[in-house]
Amino acid sequence: MQTGYYETRTKYSKEYRESCWEAAIGLQQVDGLVVSDYLRELSYKEIEGELTHYEIEELLYKKYEEQNVEASRQKEADIVSTRIAALLQEEGFTLSPVSLKHIHKMLFTGIYSHAGEFRKYNISKDEPILGGRSVKYANYQMIEDTFAYDFEQEKRKSYAGLSKEEVVKRIAEFTSSIWQVHAFGEGNTRTTAVFIQKYLNYMGFQVDNSLFLENSLYYRNALVRSNYGSYNEGVIPTNKWLERFYENLLFGGKHELRNRDLLVEKYMEDIRKLVKEDLIYGSVKIED
Prior knowledge:
By secondary structure, the chain is mostly helical. It has two domains: 12-90, no CATH class; 117-288, Fic-like fold. The chain has helices at residues 14-26, 37-47, 53-66, 73-87, 97-108, 143-155, 164-181, 188-203, 211-227, 240-251, 268-276. Helix 1 (14-26) runs antiparallel to helix 4 (73-87), helix 4 (73-87) packs across helix 5 (97-108) and helix 7 (164-181) packs across helix 10. The N and C termini lie far apart (65 Å).
């Protein structure tokens, strides 16, 4: 009898590989990116087993080199989508900030100079659903300490015996906490989404990756709402919208996920101004 370690090779179904590509392509929406038709054609060949992710990335780089494109938003969308699809099919996971760093590095090497590195400056970001206001992200000097606390708390918890409602609440809380840190200069939502999907797969949950195809922007906006509060204006952070997403993702929930539901009524005048000035790239719809 053979003893010792052995290499695992998991053969994923076409359906699962397709769902990974749907998630990967959909997640580009969070930064207003759209993949090329060429990438979609190549993704079908990976699903059919005709190409590997590595071969697709090589073909993409060749295409953009021939077009003499040093950096473009579509190039980023194509390359990062390919890497997300690959990561979602990789075995192995550890519940630690090191995994977040690894995922960010894998996704954005050659795209961002800071790939895989925690930011060394403080940031803000104007949010359309807040009328241009920003979530308060973690101070860069507190990133490692904040993660140490968040991950230690998560490791102490057990999901065994929890109801569906309890699972959804706990996953939403953990996701919201690590996203609020916004540890990287760019690419935080895509990194967080891949990390959480791999974590859920690691725990044995059946994740409907395809949900990200049409609802990635809703997912990001739900994270914004879970982390923004202005108590003097009566705006309270809430995980309600994020929990609806996770109920659909994990348990086949039927919640309608609409970005316009996440708009803060208090800020509608500012939101309408952004829409009028065309400063919102299709992230919200004010009217039904």
